[in-house]
Fold this sequence. Notes:
The structure is a single chain. The chain is of the alpha/beta class. Among the domains are: 18-85, no CATH class; 229-373, Rossmann fold. 33% of the residues lie in helices and 21% in strands. The strands form 6 sheets. A 6-stranded mixed beta sheet has the order 1-2-3-4-5-6. Strands 9-8-7-12-13 form a 5-stranded parallel beta sheet, sandwiched between helices. Helix 7 runs antiparallel to helix 8.
Amino acid sequence: MPKKIYYIFLICCFCACSNYHKDTNQQTILYQTDSLQFAQHFSIQHANNHTLLTIHNPWHKGQTLGKYYLVKHDSISTPSDGSKLIVPLQKICIQSTPHIGYIDALQQANTVIGACSPHLFYSPTIVQQYINGKVTHLGDAYQMQLETISQLAPQAIFTTAYPQADKQTERLQALGVPVIPTVEWTEPNLLARAEWIKVWGILFNQTAMADSIFTVTTQAYHHWKNLAQTAKHQPSILSGLPYKDTWYLPGGKSFMGQLFKDANTSYYFQDTAEEGSLPVSIETVWYYFHQASIWVGIDADNTQQLLQMDNRLHNFMAVKNNQLFHYRKRITPQGGNDFWESAVVYPNRLLHDLLIVTHPELLPNDTTYYIAPLP
């Protein structure tokens, strides 16, 4: 091989194993990128003296929602195209309930100094810290109290990002507080959502714990998925409730649609390409699901309340056979529901629950964690 071609070959090989970045001062930084198993909407890259966390825009390919340069102390210089954060984070504010799921799993609830509607959380630690005055109420998630946040001066505030323009985020950024938008909910794969614990792990300097939790979760999930495939039948399943004459059913590629598939159930829309919800009429649900043997995700206090929503529901087979289930087994008197907090971190528990409900013969002595029969 000619010497010139040989050198070009070596350079190409080196670039294939690493990532380069040029900041606004034209300084070249070499990064090593962490490999991810399922998640698509964040990346973690390591340089000599800092780590780059990037939140990718799931609605506009190639764009980012935020770049964060993580350093051990403020004297470290970082590129100017992102926010510099000193880690581990020790003072944060949170907007949504899934945030506390990751935080609790990593035993970092003591870092939360402000939260939206903390009295409505399930997390006993956060609720107690709120009662003790260690967590400040930031108002409603869609109308946060900016003056209160400014006074708290958190190192970062975590929000849930949406595709439309967010004026509230712009106002938060104007305060000078780094805003970290989370989009784990856009990941269609349950394990991809669970892998977001690595984001929180890197921010809390708890990478080893985050990796361990994710590994155990993934192994357990695959165990229950494989067990489900040994079932001799596929029970038909229905999910959710009508809202103003429209029933929002899980799309085939949504996280709940994939959960139904992994539990080896028969779900009519399981082959659709929709990653979100499918809005359909009650008539459509009746046509395709009135003979479904199991109905899950019923957001009602009891069967009587369910049947008052629409007279046609009396004729569903799942109603007649009393195979009705909700996700409210772990709930506080104020309405805090652990399903919305920890299930995103531990989808293995959710799949295990669904197996108990749909294939009770496989796990005759097991009890559920989130799911319970509708009273």
